[in-house]
Amino acid sequence: MAEPLALKDHTGESRIFFDRVTLGFGLLLLLTLFLLARMFYLQIIQHDLFATLSDRNRIQVQSLPPIRGLIYDRNGELIADNIPTFQLTLTKERVEDLDATLSKLDELVGLSDDEIESFKKRLSRRQRPFESVPVLYRLTPEEIARVSVDSYALPGVEIEARLVRHYPNGELMAHAIGSVRRINEEDAKTLDSVAYSGTDHLGKLGVEKFYEKTLLGTVGYQQVETDARGRVMKVLDSVPPRPGQDLTLHVDVGLQRAASEALGDRRGTVVALDPATGGILALVSKPSYDPNLFVTGIDYQSYAELRDSGDVPLFNRALQGQYEPGSTLKPFIALTGLMAGATTPEFTIHDDPGWFKLPNNTRLYRDWNWKKDGRGGHGDVNLQKAIYRSCNVYFFDLAVKLGIDRVHENLALFGFGLNTAIDLPEARSGLLPSREWKRATRGLPWYPGDTVNIGIGQGDMLVTPLQLATAVATLANRGKTVVPRMLKSGVELPQQAKTKQLDNVDQVSAEHWDLIFDSMGMVVHRGNMGFGENGTAWAYIGRDIAYQMAGKSGTAQVVGIPQGEEYDEEELTERQRKHAWFVAFAPIEDPKIALAVLVENGGGGSAIASPVARKILDYYLLENRYKVAQADD
Amino acid sequence: MSQDFVRRMPSAGFGQTRTVGLGEKFHLDIPIILLLLMICAYGLLILYSAVGQQTAPVVNQLIKIGVAFGVMIVMAQISPIFYLRIAPWLFVAGILLLIAVLFVGTTVNGSQRWLRIPGLLNFQPSELMKLVIPMMLASYFHDRHLPPLRKHVFWACVMILIPVLLIARQPDLGTSLLIGASGLLVLLLAGISWRYVFGAFIAGLMAAPALWYVMRDYQRTRVMILLDPERDPLGAGWNIIQSKTAIGSGGLFGKGLFQGTQSHLDFLPESQTDFIVAVLAEELGLIGVTLLLVLYILLVGRGVVIAIQAQDTFGRLLVGTITFTFFVYVFVNVGMVSGILPVVGVPLPLVSHGGTAILTLFAGFGIIMSVHTHRRITL
């Protein structure tokens, strides 16, 4: 373009330079104005927005979880406590390399793949940044020490102390009071997220579940000024949490332990009530499990073991187990008959061959002592003997005379077929068959043979141990019904306590009550009368008993015995044997306790279940250091 | 270059008589020194707040300023002729150092920017190039025809591109762009035809998509974050959201000195270095920011006056470029902190904590004063 040797045009050059510099300076002023306009926009026009953002930044609301209410037994013994446990937590924002930190922690305390996976799940469910997420629960002192020593190399990793539910009696009380478990994803969907913010646990079973609202307490919060790492610099305002209310239950840990020891290693269940109040004094279901395992999350393998065990330790036999009542139903059938006038104290049958037959039917309904060679039977049997000898034929006859409708109506008065429990959410209602029930469920009419079986508590009838114990309490009360309950004091009983209360059984005369009491007393105390004349339980528990006890044994069939066959324990496998029942109340003159004992596959009720009942009553009436007097409400 | 200590003489620019004051006698420019001192004092105050009212970092910064001030005075004593002569050698040395950095440099935060000379200070050659590039180009155009000829523009571009590419390799995109900008400023001030300027602008726009592909991931993220900080509010967008919050919550008068919550509660990252203007904006409000910008503009204005008064091409181009580059730093920093430019690591001149940058800045002002006080006496 231009020639390379062109001379420098100094004037022109400085004019161009002057132009460019002024232009540049003008542009520069414009850009400065632009910056100022930007600042004006942020600081004046959007000031409110950013002021709010800034406040929100530094001021955070933190929830203060309430302390869960404690649970005491009737004597003030703590049965559900809160203890501090230490958990390892991690704040993602403060961790430089998550995977490196996790593998470092694995070196220190050992993390399984499961634990890492569930940690990552929790991490993804986190609600706010800078919220710490638990990696490991229940650190041992050694683990705490290991992590603490290396904490300088683990930014974002902290050991936090929390109060966590603890059941000092372990598996002893598991089925009686239920337990809390960690809130899982499913629970979180339905829970009030405010009330449970900061709370990790929820009552999932039993009393813990039923009184959840009361036990939980009210969440508190504090407004804190934090730095970007979430560290609290200053507490600005705080509303303390209100701890949950403490509960006192009717249950007696000593009695519970006595019942549990009396059952020993056998599968079975005991429910004992205070007849005066319906308060449950003991509720045992064996085998049991340690509820503490579930509090901070049980590992999958241990859970699978519990779940898949043939002994079903997680199953609450006392509330959910539905069994044939067997002969324990006989006193109630007797009362039903007396109420309806279908029998009298004097009415006597002759049970010679040991079987009962319906008219125009060839089927034999056998007595328990029936023998193929015809040497069975109880001879002359009145109501009293029918009870203390547990004569089947008498009750076959009586049930048929009554008919199913009256049987159904009168048994319902004692709560059979109904769930009358108020604060035991797992309780079931059993089954009290009726014509309507059979038609509705099986599409079949009611046959007279069905009635015959009901007479001795067999056939379709099912009761839960709680139900049977409650009915026995009504019996012990001479007809005054009670509502079974766990709660003794602490909060108001729920409304259901009134609506579930059955009418008292008042159609029974005093002599008839006496007759039943006497007959049940003879089950235990009538002895030294010779073969076939003693109370069924006398030989096992009646010889040396120090108080007057009313009882009734029973057996619940597990497998049907074919027509014409004897029940031979030796030929059956252990799981096919009958369940042994024993119901009792004592002392007869002023009942303080009513109970039902079931030993699964135990065989005979008198031989197996009655000693269990005796031990429990012995403890409660003789050994109990708190004395029976205090058992009154 | 001769210097006459004549008391009364006509001014070079305006033909008025003027007094050679004490400043001129020691080759100093009083307005520049006063403005520098004011900005530094203001900056130290903000720094004192930003570090949570600790004295140690402030004293440390004060020492650095003192050293840099000394360097400035020394640089002012040296005649511009010397800078003119030494420029090509400095340029060649600078390029060699940049190449050396790529091979034996120390890596800090993933970038290889530092040369560690055993026994001596750590040293960033790219920092040196901030002064050397304008010096080299100014000296190149000093005895050439202006407006520059096409082939001179070509060679000038080569001289700019070599260090720019070397620095971009480190990688230090921010510095390389700023150094490239300072080179282009020389071309603009030298009177390069607007056709080239617009041509380059259009070419740049067309090259932008290509640039996207050569950018590293973190650089792309920064651009994306600028467009939408909310896309990663706890990660890369955090800085920008927090600094905007700090600025915006300051309002007109600010929350009061030492009262900023964003910075003191650690929400604001880099609050002592690149994001220090957010601390100022939060605590002293729009008023405080305006005051700082006014001081900067006065300083830049003084530089512009000196550039206009300069007597030769070298002086003009060098002073003009250093002055405008200074403003570019201010603009890029404030623009980035207030969320209108992507986050590139450019400190706020004279205020951000950090030594090397301050040294370069003061050295630049030393050169400006040298040019101004070594003028030949003319009519």
Describe the protein's architecture and organization:
The complex is a heterodimer of chains A (633) and B (379). Chain A is built from 24 helices and 20 strands. Chain A is of the alpha+beta class and 633 residues long. In chain A, strands 2, 3, 4, 5, 10 and 17 form a 6-stranded mixed beta sheet that branches. A 5-stranded antiparallel beta sheet of chain A has the order 12-11-20-19-18, with helices on both faces. Mean pLDDT of chain A is 85; it is low at 628-633. Chain B has 379 residues and is mainly α. Chain B has one domain. Chain B contains 14 helices and 5 strands. In chain B, the strands form 2 sheets. Chain B has a 3-stranded antiparallel beta sheet with strand order 3-4-5. Mean pLDDT of chain B is 84; it is low at 1-17. Classes of the chains: A alpha+beta (633), B mainly alpha (379).
Write the layout of secondary structure elements.
The complex is a heterodimer of chains A (633) and B (379).
Chain A: H1 10-45, H2 47-58, E1 59-64, E2 71-72, E3 78-90, H3 98-109, H4 113-124, E4 133-136, H5 141-149, E5 157-166, H6 174-177, E6 180-182, H7 185-190, E7 201-203, H8 206-210, H9 212-216, E8 220-226, E9 232-239, E10 247-249, H10 253-263, E11 268-273, E12 280-286, H11 292-295, H12 300-308, H13 317-320, H14 330-340, E13 349-351, E14 355-357, E15 364-366, E16 379-381, H15 383-388, H16 392-402, H17 404-412, H18 435-442, H19 448-455, H20 465-476, E17 487-489, H21 496-499, H22 510-525, H23 538-542, E18 550-556, E19 579-586, E20 593-599, H24 605-623
Parallel strand pairs in A: 2-10
Antiparallel strand pairs in A: 1-8, 2-3, 3-4, 3-5, 6-7, 8-9, 10-17, 11-12, 11-20, 13-16, 14-15, 18-19, 19-20
Helix pairs in contact in A: 10-24, 14-16, 14-17, 14-22, 16-19
Chain B: E1 8-10, E2 17-19, H1 22-25, H2 30-50, H3 56-77, H4 80-104, E3 106-108, E4 111-116, E5 122-123, H5 125-142, H6 150-168, H7 173-189, H8 194-214, H9 217-227, H10 237-250, H11 261-264, H12 276-309, H13 313-337, H14 355-373
Antiparallel strand pairs in B: 1-2, 3-4, 4-5
